[in-house]
Design goal:
It is a single chain. The protein is of the alpha+beta class. The protein has a domain of 72 residues. The chain has five helices and three strands; from the N terminus they run H-H-H-E-E-E-H-H. It has a three-stranded antiparallel beta sheet. The longest helix has 16 residues.
Length: 103
């Protein structure tokens, strides 16, 4: 299946829940929440030479420095896709990354 067909047929994932909007103050729209998620995720992905972008509020695009990219439907697909793209494990809870993010 092509990326576009997969996006059009994809249902909501628990990470897209509107409950997150109700719990976070200042998050007035789903689009703003997604932008916030992408910004936080990119802080971690930058340590692996990757970045993620929102794609029309329906999916995400993960890309590397050379321009290779993959469309993912939801956050659950992020880390397996990132590992495939960089050909090594990704650990978003790596103490070195957490220390760098805390500065």
């Amino acid at each position: 299946m092509c990326g576009l067909c997969g996006v059009l047929g994809a249902g909501e994932h628990w990470t897209d829940s509107d409950d997150a909007l109700k719990k976070r103050s200042g998050a007035e729209t789903r689009r703003r929440e997604r932008a916030h998620q992408v910004a936080l995720t990119n802080r971690i992905l930058s340590h692996y030479g990757l970045k993620m972008a929102d794609w029309q509020g329906a999916a995400f695009v993960v890309s590397n420095r050379t321009g290779a990219s993959e469309v993912i439907d939801h956050f659950a697909a992020l880390w397996p896709t990132a590992e495939k793209m960089i050909k090594r494990p990704c650990d978003p809870l790596d103490p070195k990354i957490i220390a760098a993010l805390s500065q």
